[in-house]
Amino acid sequence: MRKDLDKIMENKGIDALLLFSESYKNPNMYYLTGFLAPDPFIFFKKINLPAIIIVNSMEFSRAQKESIIKDVRSYTDYNYADFIKKTNDPKIGGLKFLATIVKREVSKDKIICVPPDFPSIATDVLRNEGLKIQPMFDVVEEARETKEPEEIEEIVKVQRVNEKVLTEIIELIANCDIGPNKILINNKNGKKPLTVGELKTLIGHKFLDAWCSIEEDIIVACGPSSADPHFHGYSEDKIRAGQPIVFDIYPRSIRGRYWTDMTRTIVRGKSNNVVKKMFEVVLEAKGSCFDALHEGALGSEMYNLCCDIIEKAGFHTTRGGKKIEKGFTHSLGHGVGLEIHENPTIGEFNNKPISAHSVVSIEPGLYDPKVGGVRIEDIVEVTKNGCKNLTNMPVILEI
Ligand SMILES: [Mn+2]
């Protein structure tokens, strides 16, 4: 949470935190400032003191209104125009301007932490100006890992839209006719074969109606090709009965900026026994992981529990670096928030205790190149004694 930032800085020996970025694509910048701007601006915070942001003059009054930072300053307060006029290259000049501002705020012996995506060219310029710049992983990310109730509310809002949209899509699939070669025929669209492209377009429009977007595509994969967990589905792919259809849907709220993540696997009509068995095992693994998840549990423990169940049922896993043809081939889950994949990772190598109020996905899956994939994914809020499922959508194989 934001209030943990000073403690995190203290633990990591950081005197000051510096970011220089736009904030639509940079989740740390948005998290720290609550201000959306398409051009880079400056965030600077000394330990145990309130942060400041410095924006260009066009953004100044909007930043005052919209940012959660009280101390908003303008480039003009630092005579930006005069400074840049004196330099040969306005881009390098901009970075020297940044160095000048930082030097006014802290002495050269202080450790100034920057995030891993801080521009390396800016690190160069600032270091040449004598500043102690220290790129570090997991500073702002660690604060972001535990969510405030308002953040969870934002995630749940998007998730409710997600459930509504996928319910409507599943209904559409249930109402299709089954044509030659088991290809689904959409009666509502001129009796044409139902394609992945048609479904994705429909899903995208429905999300936009709720001011959410499928910013990074989504997965709609049918049949054997769904055995590749990150195969997104080609537009021209036809949807068929009797085969698994994997829907992995992760929309983002355009205004609230939070993501959600949910996967359901369905079969129109009767599924074959292999897929049915895979579904039962995946569902059991998900249930057991939910039962075992609580504050302090390790990602590796959760992953191992999942693998134990899957292996006991006779399927293979990639645990221990094994190379397999079919089975459980990915990690168990990930944090969800201002990024679709963020801390904590729930996987084999993650031995940091999971914090209460993390929001994580649990998504076991089984894959067989002959028949396809089965994956089921919910997101939960981790609590002191367990976890709270934030997903409210039935898990049904055959429709
Ligand atoms: Mn996921």
In words, what does this structure look like?
There is one protein chain. By secondary structure, this protein is an alpha+beta fold. The protein has 2 domains: 2-144, 3-Layer(aba) Sandwich (Creatine Amidinohydrolase, Chain A, domain 1); 146-389, Creatine Amidinohydrolase (Alpha-Beta Complex). It is built from 11 helices and 21 strands. β5 (111-114), α6 and β6 form a beta-alpha-beta unit. α8 packs across α9 and α10 (273-292) runs antiparallel to α11. The chain starts with a helix and ends in a 10-residue tail after the last strand. The mean pLDDT is 97. The structure holds manganese (II) ion.
Total of domains: 2
User: What's the CATH topology name of the largest domain?
Assistant: Creatine Amidinohydrolase
In terms of DSSP E residues, the strand content is 15-25%
- N/C terminus separation: 41 Å
The coarse overall form would be elongated
User: How are the strands ordered across the major sheet?
Assistant: 4-3-2-1-5-6
Q: How many helices in DSSP terms?
A: 11
CATH architecture descriptor name of the largest domain:
Alpha-Beta Complex
Tell me, rounded to a whole number, the average pLDDT: 97
Helix/strand structural class: alpha+beta
> If you compute it from the alpha carbons, what radius of gyration comes out, rounded to the nearest whole angstrom?
24 Å
